[in-house]
Write a structure and sequence with these properties.
- The protein has a single domain (14-261), classed as P-loop containing nucleotide triphosphate hydrolases (Rossmann fold).
- It is 35% helix and 22% strand.
- It contains nine helices and ten strands.
- It has helices at 14-18, 70-77, 100-110, 126-136, 141-154, 170-181, 200-215, 227-230, 249-261, and strands spanning 28-39, 42-54, 59-63, 85-90, 93-94, 111-114, 188-192, 219-223, 235-240, 243-244.
- It starts with 13 loop residues before the first helix and ends in a 6-residue tail after the last helix.
Length: 267
């Protein structure tokens, strides 16, 4: 059962409100993706050549231990960071070579982000939190408010529209964050540990909502360390040492060799 609302029935159906943008080709193409950081003068290889494809409507969970590169992958796909090497395309639109303004416009067209700790605007109302992204993207205010109210209704928050986010429960705050992520009908929803800051009841609410979105055709890429959360997805991708872990002996030996050769040894 989905989250409870205020008993109102929207004139707009769930399918209309939650319908995502669907590209003609793949939602996401990642090829040879590498990311190296400098830490105290020492190179840290966060990603070591990741190849990854998502088709429209897929719900994919990326799992792996801390430091395996899964959050780095999410940030690169979102255009919040730039790769050292490799290609990323979202709905056929390459991210390579784009400046910060171009990446921001790409996010408004294609990406909705759900953060672990919500990242809500506490000085604005629940309704304003959902309306603002659509207005920034160029939607007329009245149309943006109508869409925001439709989303809040479907996500069980219509009666909280005038409240500040701070009075909501953890599960309600994450549902609000998801409503905000859906404001511009994104091609791809990115979720970074979306249940990590919630209790078990709030986590179940969020997973049920993701299942509803997936059933409606929304593409979702979710990072998690929790197997039970990952099991809600249609496909699980495991990462280890900055690469997709396919479990083969060859992959294991390459990772070990790279780890040895990249280690600085001191006498």
């Amino acid at each position: 059962m989905g989250p409870e609302g205020n008993g109102n029935t929207n004139a707009v159906g769930e399918t209309d409100v939650l319908e995502p943008r669907v590209p003609d080709g793949n939602v996401l193409d990642v090829l040879g993706l590498r990311k190296t950081y400098e830490s105290e003068g020492v190179p840290v290889r966060a990603l070591r050549g990741v190849d990854f494809v998502m088709e429209p409507g897929e719900f994919v969970a990326v799992m792996g231990p801390s430091g395996c590169g899964k959050s780095t992958l999410l940030n690169l796909v979102a255009g919040l960071d730039t790769p050292t090497d490799g290609e990323i395309s979202v709905a056929g639109e390459s991210l390579v070579g784009k400046d910060e303004n171009d990446l921001a416009r790409m996010r408004r067209r294609h990406i909705g982000i759900v953060f672990q700790f919500f990242n809500l605007l506490e000085g604005m109302s629940v309704l304003e939190n959902v309306t603002l992204p659509a207005i920034i993207a160029g939607m007329p205010r009245r149309q943006a408010e109508t869409r925001a109210r439709d989303l809040l209704d479907l996500l069980g928050l219509a009666d909280k529209a005038r409240n500040a986010p701070g009075v909501l429960s953890g599960g309600q705050r994450q549902r609000l964050a998801i409503a905000r992520a859906l404001a511009n009908k994104p091609t791809l929803v990115l979720a970074d540990e979306p249940t990590g800051a919630l209790d078990s009841a709030g986590g179940l609410e969020v997973l049920e909502l993701f299942r509803r979105l997936h059933a409606g055709g929304q593409a979702i890429l979710m990072v998690t360390h929790d197997q039970k959360v990952a099991d809600a997805a249609g496909r699980i991708v495991r990462m280890r040492d900055g690469r997709i872990d396919d479990g083969t002996e060859e992959d294991m030996s390459v990772t070990i060799t790279e780890s040895i050769t990249s280690t600085t040894w001191e006498p």
